[in-house]
Amino acid sequence: MKLAIASGKGGTGKTMMAANLAFTLARTRQVTLIDCDVEEPNLHLFFPAPAEIQEVSVPVPVIDAGRCRHCGKCGEFCQYGALTVLPDRVLFFPELCHSCGGCRLVCPEDAIHEEPRRIGTLSFANAFAGLNLITGTLDTGSPHAVPVIRAAKKVAARDPVIIIDTAPGTSCPVVEALDGCDAGILVTESTPFGLHDLALAADVADRLGIPVGVVINRSDGKDEETRRFCTDRNLEIMLTIPFSREIAAIQSRGDLLCKVRPEWQNEFSSIFEKCVAGARVTK
Ligand code: SF4
Ligand code: SF4
User: Fold this and answer.
1) Is ligand 2 within 6 A of the CB of residue 99?
2) pLDDT tens-place string over residues 43-63
């Protein structure tokens, strides 16, 4: 079961949701929690533990100046503008390269080979007996979030229960994190902005064929618009968490609602059971 926690908007409580769900489930089964918000991973703050770090690299082209005849074919081929062929040399812009390998294939002089270039890291921590945490972190200045997310998902691919915390929004890194998931939870809040971005996230999940349910966080009780939207789109509201100073205080000190107030564990377990029941069948 691969379950994604997403939100069209930042700050809705998506990471809180992922952390509490993982904490609750890991008390009765083995759970892998993956932080795919690679530009700002923060799940590790809920689960401090020693971590093993592994580098994530992508292959990038290296030009052999001795063999290159400056024919221009690699520059013409590259759709990302990562190669500029001058009369006496080839300029390479690694931040634009998407590691497609095409330039190496089209070079008639066999003047291009590939070498790995570091773009980020994965860290592996055993938070407690039932919970492994994998954190993807993009190196500062690197624009390539997608390969880091792909690497994080790949190492956990065979684990029985995987919870993926995506980045907020609906951009490429979110699509990559959602892709291949069996079910999803969209976390929103009862504001016009929350509803607008919930609609965007629901559209993305729809296009990817992922069944999703909704959690309304920090509800002020005025959720009519959100509830109407969910009814219209046939989205189940799996849980409503009220706005509460006590819950806000628990979170702001980096604690877990389900740990401090164990009565919430039933609510989070029930969300998971609903997701399992509605999950798409994958091979
Ligand atoms: S295709 Fe090969 S030979 Fe032509 S400019 Fe590029 S590296 Fe040089
Ligand atoms: S590997 Fe692909 S994206 Fe990178 S420079 Fe070569 S053609 Fe361009």
Assistant:
1) yes
2) 999 999 999 999 999 999 999
Task: For residues 212 and 121, give the distance between their C-alpha atoms in angstroms, rounded to a whole number.
Answer: 29
- Is residue 139 within 8 A of residue 39, CB to CB? The reply is no
The span from the CA of 17 to the CA of 121, in Å, is: 24
> Mutate which of 71, 77, 114 to test ligand 1's pocket (most atoms within 8 Å of Cβ)?
71
Write down the pLDDT at residue 143: 87
In this predicted structure, what is the pLDDT of residue 192?
Answer: 86
Q: From residue 225, how far is each of 3, 126, 236, 277 by CA, in Å? A: 26, 41, 14, 26
Pocket of ligand 1 from Cβ distances under 6 Å: 63, 68-74, 85, 90, 107, 109, 111-112
Q: What is the pTM of this model?
A: 0.91
**Amino acid of residue 70:** H
Tell me if 260 sits within 8 A of 46, measured CB to CB: no
Taking 70 as the pLDDT cut, the residues of the chain under it are 280-283
Ligand 1 centre from 70 Cα, in Å?
Answer: 5
